[in-house]
Predict the structure of AP180 N-terminal homology (ANTH) domain-containing protein.
Amino acid sequence: MKVFRGKIWAALGSLMDHAGAASNKASTAAVPDRALLTDIEAAIARCTDGGGGGSVGDDRHVHEILFLVSNAPGAITFLSRRITARLEAARAPATALRSLLLVHRLLRAGDRYFEQDFRGLWASHDLRVDAPRCACSCSPLAASGAGVNYVTASTVTATGACSFLHGYTAYLEERMQWVINQSGNLEPTRPSPQDHDDKPHPASSYDAAAAETLLFKLAMCQRLLDVAVQLLPDNNTSASAAARSAFGIVLRESFKVYDAFNEGIDVLLRSRSIGLLSKSLRVSAQEVLRKACAQTPELKEFYHKCKKNNVGKITDYPVVRVVTLAQASAIEIMPPVCEEDGREELGGAGVVVQENEGDAPFESKLETTISAVWVEFDDEDHQDGREVTGDDRSS
């Protein structure tokens, strides 16, 4: 018996040794080679140093970084921390801007797995895009010294660059919450599902899920477009190649976001199922439309200025449709829906309108208590021009 127990313990010890060796081997494989890390850091320097940063030729350095990172799973963490360190060490707006531009280009050029890992590192704060701390101030008077009433040309230039840098930082913070889908369009990521106190009606649960998804997407579009509109560079900022490149990317992305927003607003305005939704979703729809009334004219003016100034030499601007107060009010005064049969009463006048399936963007099959009745018409019924209903036939 003692010999048997000894063999068991020997076997267990052997298994533990093998497991430990495999674990050490896996951990060693997860740590990138030092030479590879050196190559990654050198590529980061080429993208962010002042030698022509922001030019079209920098794309090859971005692809070089992606290639190097793809050869070592743990290298993306090193990449994120090195970019963050460069942002934190930057004191000139131009230096910080080139680092942010690198983050933006990596987001767009990387594959789906890289994008997912990159955004995950942003969520865990290994990658920080809110790190820039410029030596200059956004206030010209503060930059020129207390009590001094003059502003030098260099101060004005620094102020414009610093202002653009903070706006671009805010844009990237929002952009990190979007992914590029299979069709190449931007799509906002959904947060983890949470319980809602205001439960939708069981008959309209499908409508509620579709409406909630639509309203979330519209709200995210409005947030991203808000920060994009604030980024129009001035004459001083536009002299920077990195600023021109960054704004060109933002402008093109805003086109895709506006297309998705316009399509969603059209669905919302044509919907006849809003009355079936919970109160919180109806309130959300009203908030989206009220904000669109103020935002769409501003966005239209923004694109007009960009096109007039030939920013980025872009010609394919979208046609912005201005949402009016009348359209927003139509949702606000939409009458409630009877929960018994899913029919809609207009203005309390007793007139009942039954919507057809397919008319509403949020479709659901609604059962009613009205049964079908076959009605025959004779000549006398047609002569008096009166339509015969089921009640008339029974009487």
About this structure: The first strand starts at residue 178 and ends at 180.
